[in-house]
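A reminder before we start the practical. When you read a complex entry, don't treat the lines as separate problems. The point of joint prediction is that each chain is placed relative to the others, so the output describes one connected object in space. Small molecules and nucleic acid strands, if listed, are placed in the same frame. In the example below there are two entries. Take a minute to note the order of the lines before looking further.
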Amino acid sequence: MTSQTAPTLREAIAAMSDTVERLNELSRAKYQNPYEAVEWPESVNPVEDWFFTPELSTLYGTPYWQQLDEPGQRRLTFDEAANFFSLNIHGEKALMEGLASRLYRSDLVEIADYLHHFLDEENKHSVYFGGFCRRYARVYRSRHVSFPRRPEREVEDLLFFAKVLIFEEHADRYNVLQAKDARLHPLARFINEAHHADESRHLVFNRAIVTAFWDAYSPGWNEGQREEIRDYLGQFFATTWREYYNPDVYADSGFDAPWLVAEDAWNAPEQRAHRRRVSAKCLRFFLSTGLLLEEPADVF
Amino acid sequence: MSSDHPGRVGADRSVNVEMLRSWVARKAKDLPPEGLADDLPLLEGRHLTSLHIPELILLLEGLRGEAIDVERLQAGDFRDLRTIAARFLVGGPDPDAACAAETVPARSRGASL
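Here is the predicted structure of the whole assembly.
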């Protein structure tokens, strides 16, 4: 049952048509060839150059950070750069699957042009991320496991784009900070800047489409369904942040008890404060729309 | 520090199973009045979702002290507490772990940090 005041999905999408058309024009104007836009160095030196902003390290502010000398800190953050790029690769794989499955769906045909751009740009990002990881580091594994999807398409649509929004808002904050960080190797700055250039449009689209789905569908859901959605999104905050604290990275950087390091870093007050700062803008969106009623537990 | 404290490699298996139980009890939604039974279907009963699995894998890896080959996992591996414990905590080393590409520790420095 749908409330009389709730817009239909068609109406909600029509309301964002000007935004989508502007994003289409920008994507066409800023079209980039990832095979020509960057010259890959023969090699890089992970202990001489910074590839990741040290203050963004998952160990920054913890006792582990102080135990490393500066070359050790550079080495750790090089591996964290590869992990950051890897989790983007895994996230974009899932994103591309979800976008492709929605291309030309009858109720979403009005945004098909932008889904083409979105898909194209995500694939290009993965070319950059994969290019770095495969040349100089490795692609770190994901711990996500694909299970059968939810049966309700409306819920699945909302959750898909809401998860994209959370993931991309966090990654974009890292991109913005690192693109401006003059200490970083030019290649690291370039990849972060190139990603941000496209993501800034994706963030606008994500907020518009999540709002459209929520406005159109949520009035027809009962409180139990809305609570289940909120629980799921809250858990996604924890899951997506946990990926930054990867024991495989700590092992590569020479730590003997990598899972313990991951757990300690996750629980460190400085790291909780860091996550809160990075998530703040994204959280404000979810709280202002009513998609969340309170901050997720066990994250900040 | 969390009460779930992975990384204690070599801890008694029953201790590991209890830590697993404690983690699931803390994360699971809408547990039945009789509590968390060993055969309670965790995913099928929607007490946990697939989003909990990465965190659960981290816990299990820390408890057993070796990586899990995620690419070979199936939903059935996480059916209930008994299945999870048997699959990942009790018994010999996971044969799939040897196949996990470049799993930890890859480049141990040999000194505690």
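Discuss with your neighbour: The mean pLDDT of chain A is 95. What might explain this?
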